[in-house]
Amino acid sequence: MGKNKNLKFNKLLMAVFICLQMSCNSENQSKDVKNDNSQTIQQNEENMKNNIVNPKGTTIETRYNVPAGYKRVQAEEGSFAQFLRNQKLKPYGEKALFFNGEAKRSEGIYDSVIDVEIGDRDLHQCADAIMLLRGEYFYSKKEYDKINFKFVSGFDAKYSKWMEGYRINPEGKGSYYKKTGSSNTYKDFRNFMTIVFAYSGTLSLENEMKPQALKDMKIGDVFIMGGSPGHAVIIVDMAVNDKGEKIFMLAQSYMPAQQTQILINPENSDMKVWYSLKNKDILVTPQWRFSVDKLRSF
To answer: What Pfam families does the record point to (predicted)?
Structure first.
């Protein structure tokens, strides 16, 4: 009988110990869950605060929100600024394609891609992408007489002449010759831009633009370093805070010919695609560095 009593007593102690242990574990697990929930809530709040990317957005304006404390600058109806903001983007996560159809890696370089057809020749590089955006803008407004670009030789290529059936002989200083009847289709426009791409570049584009002070920077302005090689990026959106401090978004093509991309900020991941030049003399982009005095305006 004594042995049975001791056995029952030991079983009772063991049961009490197990209950206490389970209670402690339950309490610790509860604390862990509360801590995890708290961290998740804080993380979600931080994500909402810095929620710059809207993957479902289909244009620059609808895909990218401005950081807290900023608001987009106004863009007049029908302006080049509005045109750039409304550029159609490829679905979020899709890669930029080179002219040969191969994909360009995005890591550390770009966040989105403008949905632009670039053809199968190596003729849509940095300056070309900017000239195409400018040309597309005037074409969409039927302001054909404003679609003019200079060749490196200095020749003034005019789409209004191309529409009349004239073609361009690029030899020497360049000249027009009559070849066909008048026509103004989108294919005609793109054929004109193709010859512009072939005989223009960063050097000619920089020469036909005017210097722009940083304080007057606006959407559509370009950071450009003419040369061979040279490079150029265009401001496609801009925002400002209550202090008047500006931030901006950049787009580029590059070498070899590739679709135009929305660049990430390599110096501030929290800003994602937004750039600031506060207290800076150099604009650092993923694939080029520009002195701030290289800002130009059309």
So the answer is: DUF4846 (PF16138)
- Reported as a pLDDT band with limits 50, 70 and 90, residue 5 is very low
The pTM (predicted TM-score) of the whole model is 0.84
CA distances from 102 to 27, 115, 126, 200 (A): 56, 15, 18, 25
CA-wise closest residue to 85 among 223, 251, 254, 278: 251
pLDDT in tens, 179-218: 999 999 999 999 999 999 999 999 999 999 999 999 999 9
Nearest to residue 107, comparing CAs of 120, 118, 116, 96? Answer: 96
Phi and psi at 113, nearest 5°, equal -130, 130
pLDDT at residue 129 is higher than 90: yes
Asked whether 245 and 217 are in contact (CB, 8 A), the reply is no
Q: Can the peptide bond before residue 170 be classed as cis, meaning omega within 30 degrees of 0? A: no
Give dist(CA 65, CA 239) in Å, integer. Answer: 10
Q: What tokens were used for 119? A: 């053809």
Peptide bond into 211 cis (omega under 30): no
In sequence order, the β-bridge partners of residue 104 are 96
Q: How far is CA 190 from CA 85, 104, 243, in A?
A: 22, 24, 43
**In whole angstroms, what is the distance from residue 138 CA to residue 295 CA?**
22
